[in-house]
Amino acid sequence: MVASKFASVIEEAGVRYAIVAGYIAILFGRARRSDDIDFVLEYLGEDRFADLCRRAGRVGFVMMQGDIASEESVRSVYWDYLARGYSVRFIYRDVILPNIEAKLATTSVHRYVISHGIQVVVNNEYTLRVSPLELQIAYKLYLGSDKDIGDAVFLYTLFKKIISLQELYMWCERLGVDCEVLKR
Amino acid sequence: MHEKELEADRRRNLEDVIKHARWEAEAARRLGRRWFELRDEWLIKAHEADKEMWKDARVREALVKAILTKDEVLRASRTSKAHQPT
């Protein structure tokens, strides 16, 4: 609900994005909760971010680091957080958790995630763009907590027949992680 | 607890996490929509309980503060790492 609301705001603003991290495993059925839904947004300037915030504010989002209704505050958050590579959090109405954690694409991996994202149709009601699964599985292994490894195993077990193993191994090598744990 | 025992405990815990994640994926594939219904029932119940708690302005404020503080700590640690000589 929160993810689809934010995704539709971004799409209406003409901003490309992809959802990354733990929410992907949850979207595909993992039975756990998440504190945040991570969005990587294509690199935006201050004006486009202000436009996005205006749209988000209109449908009920508030910004945790500033006042979404104040243009000055939004622009200040842009320079203090997004432009420096940090994320900004948005809360939808009375839902504090999960909240949206949005950051700009500042690395080659972020840009890859956006350009190679896959579209997920949920209950024929809305669509979300998520990171390629091969990269996500490798990235979860890279993060390395028990929860992250659990997410990686979940996604791998669910999608092993349709993902590209070659691409998965390539990302594991690039991130310097051992993917043996997936097959144990 | 001895360090070796701790390590063995950690390993066992990870094995459980892996087994459970694999079981969940297989259940999701086997049960399809029914799995999502069961999972969502549990998630919605937990979420409703949270929302009840957040009605208290003090709880809400404390939670928001905790999230922002955690972000600031992460941000500070990233900044200080960036300033370390390589």
- List segments of chain B where confidence is low: pLDDT < 50 over at least 5 consecutive residues: none
Oligomer state of the chains in this structure: heterodimer
Largest sheet of chain A: 5 strands, mixed
Q: Quote the beta fraction of chain B.
A: under 5%
Could you describe the 3D structure shown?
The complex is a heterodimer of chains A (184) and B (86). Chain A starts with a helix and ends in a 9-residue tail after the last helix. Chain A contains 8 helices and 7 strands. In chain A, strand 4 and strand 5 form a beta hairpin. Chain A has 184 residues and is α+β, with helices and mostly antiparallel strands. Chain A folds into 2 domains: 2-131, Beta Polymerase, domain 2 (2-Layer Sandwich), CATH 3.30.460; 133-184, no CATH class. Chain B is an all-alpha fold. Chain B has 2 domains: 1-54; 56-86. In chain B, 90% of the residues lie in helices and 0% in strands. Chain B is built from 3 helices and no strands. The chains are: A alpha+beta (184), B mainly alpha (86).
Give a short summary of the structure.
With 184 residues, chain A is an alpha+beta fold.
Which features does this protein show?
heterodimer; A: 184 residues; alpha+beta; Beta Polymerase, domain 2; 2 domains; 5-stranded mixed beta sheet; 7 strands; 21% strand; B: 86 residues; mainly alpha; 3 helices
